[in-house]
TrEMBL record:
<dbReference type="InterPro" id="IPR036116">
    <property type="entry name" value="FN3_sf"/>
</dbReference>
<dbReference type="InterPro" id="IPR003961">
    <property type="entry name" value="FN3_dom"/>
</dbReference>
<protein>
    <recommendedName>
        <fullName>Fibronectin type-III domain-containing protein</fullName>
    </recommendedName>
</protein>
<feature type="domain" description="Fibronectin type-III">
    <location>
        <begin position="552"/>
        <end position="655"/>
    </location>
</feature>
<dbReference type="InterPro" id="IPR013783">
    <property type="entry name" value="Ig-like_fold"/>
</dbReference>
Amino acid sequence: MSKALVGASELIGAVGMGVAAFLDPALVASPWFDKIMASLAISGISMEAGAIANALTANRGVNITTRQAASYRQIIYGIQRVGGIQIYRSTTGGHHDQFNYVIVIATHECFAIENLYLDGRQVYWDTTSAGNTTQNGYNFGGNADGNSHQGPNGVQYNFGTLVYCEARYGEQLPGDVIGGLTANDPTWAASSGKSPFVGGCTYVYLKVEYDSSMFPSEPEVRFTVHGKPVVDPRVGTTPTYSANAALIINDVLTDPEWGLGDDSVNQDQLIAAANICDEQVALAAGGTESRYSCHWHYDTGTAVGDIISTLMESMGGKISRIGGQWFIYPAAYYGPSASFNSDHLIDSVDWTTKGFRDISNRVRGKYTAPNFPFNVAGNLYDSNGWYNGQIQDNFPFAFQPTSYPDYAADTLHGYANDEYLTEDGGVVLPLQKDFIQVLSIAQAQRLAKIALLRNRMQMGSGTLKMSLAAFMLQPMDTFNMTCSQMGWTDKLLEVNSFQFATDQTDAGPLLSITLGVNETDPTIYDWSVAEELTVYDVPAAPSLQAPYTPAPPTDMELISSAATALLQPDGSVAPRIQVNWTTPLDILVTQIQVQYQPVGAANWTDAGSASVNSNFYFISGVVSGQQYDVRIRSIRGNGATSVWVELDGFTAGLVLSVQTQDGVGKGSLVGEAYPDGTAAIECNPFTALVGQLSLPVFPGGAVTISGLTQQTLYYVYYIDPTYVGGNVTPIATTNQSDFLGKLGYFLIDSIVTPFAGSGGGGGGTGTSGGKYQPTTFSDLGTRTTTTPAAAYDGNLSSYATVSGSSTSTFAVGKTSNTTAIGSGAWSGFNSVVAAADMTLTVICTTILRQSATSPSGSVSINASLGGSTTSPLANSAGNLTTYTLTVPTGTNLSGISVFVNAVPGVGGASSSVPSASSSVQAQVAEIYIQ
């Protein structure tokens, strides 16, 4: 990376990483998973232009030609009216009346120079003269044509033979020295092996002869330039002129000399972004223009972050770094890519709404007007009647910052009235948005509308902690969210940040995705020709007088639930009342006062005040089951207060926020197995203790859960959102996510159901119950198997581990590999001949881990049925899985062996990666024949 992002900005994005490994529960359960997660951070943030840098107008380039001993170089994109830097000047001629200038316009190749202005008067060329060239369709240079032309304010002028200019466009080769210059000033000629060809720069030689009437002083020099060619991946790899905003941003990111020097821009997204920028939008004056064009110049002293920030303003865009690549997003509606609901949440929603100080009801600012009188619609560059000296060309006004019409939801823009202003109590709340890189007044208005509607229609934002189902999202994606607790049904949300995290729980690491989101709406990006105004369309000035009485807060709401209760250090739970409201529409309000009283009380109790920037407040010290009256009001800084807003007769509740992973009824479960092949769990009475509270559970007697599977680990829980205990309904599950992290869900205990064969109870290694297990184990590999007896202890929660590991170290011309292979054999089944077909069962979890450059390795499970043929059992990485193989009639079980092999992968030599590793495991929970 040739340059760092400096200034006020730092663009951060998501660190790419494969998804599969993090969706593997077996990996989560592994001992070393915590160490990995301790150093893992997957995040992504979509940054708006304003968030990238504050100094958007710093070092904007050179507007008039100046002379400096040492100067920053200039960079130009799109069409610009600019000056340059004089790097050489001299006076020659017999009367020393010829002024020679070497003026560098840009530090890169330019597509073309369109024209030259001297004191605001355009130079017209003799196309037959020496030095006159046509570059990409634009004729420039040579001698002035000697004709009279009409200049600023209608004054006639004729440069006669006083002006000569010759250009180079940055593509010149060594030795290509402008001959017109050396003819007038030989000191510029090549000498001592040096060639002043100003390589890589666009520059001109300008000669102006002294004339007291035409040039009473040294003239002001400016050029109209078509700037730096950029690559358009839609048509090839050869740079060409383009004002496409996305392509220009891509050029800054990838330019190794003057930009970021990072070529990791996602090409598919770049093409999509370029297509959006090139979409044609109808103009009020007729015709169309590109949706987002960009025209800007600056100097090389500008920080890269400031450059990208300013360029992105031209398309209202955002940028993100995801998976090691840059993603460029112009302002547009991106349809939802997924739908989620409350089941995908693993915590309550953290949600805030903008306060009055954060909203605006109109957008105003400046754009760059390329001509004067100001164009009335669109860009109209080259079609304005005042352009090119046809009537007059008021040069001092060309390419100058000019106010575009304010955008508001008012009658001028097709609304019934100034809707947002009315909502805001008549207080004007302007948002300043300058688009110095935009030449089109219509484009500036489109961007202003997007800024206003984003401000008003993206009022809510927050954080969602979600399950791994949200891993498919990335910044700038939109999705639909249904959440009854928030009153949402298919609410459209936009992702602005993404973070992958793990929380350590008693049951092991809990993976989650934390999304920063804001609400959005597709109408933000709609545009109609009827909304386009000219600079002369001015709305009626709204009243700036604030009302004497402050506006009160609205939409008051009271909540007392598990989410609001406070768990004290001693374990007791204190109920609280949460008061919610919508920020008052009064910019002068600073505080929201909260008061409460028990129903029927004579006096109000003051609960304190909240900042107007908050939308909620907690009332503590209330009693569970007691009814309360609550009221709130607005307070201005000068002490003026609004009317009270009141809700009466609200009951404070005691709903505990308990998310248990340890059973509240340890030892109260009894497992049973029946001859019909099913199992059951008997749930006996117990007392649940939380803090200082105790509640009887199952006081009416034991409750049995039947119809379960034998030899299976079950978690038994119940749901008690009001925490009253009693004869609750127990629920058996094999999935902890059914109860972990859910309010009002209580785990009783876990238990493995026993086994009972048909015709009687029991089981084990003998014939009783018809279930047979191995009794011996042999290590066959170069890595020791741990707890091999756990594979035949009748307990699914314990397991034997067969593992393999390898490490590869790479160096130039040399590879070093260290490999240990796990292999084990279980045998010693009873000497019993199968009277009918039986089933060999292996219950196992396979875990594969590897670095990015190493193959994953493999786990194999095989069974020898007493002969020379070994039969493989299909296996794959994943959860605890049951593998089976038919044992044919007549097979003596004592001749059966089960082999489990864990072979790690070995990486190949790599000059770019110093090392690679691979680790594989087979966690064998049970082996038996039945």
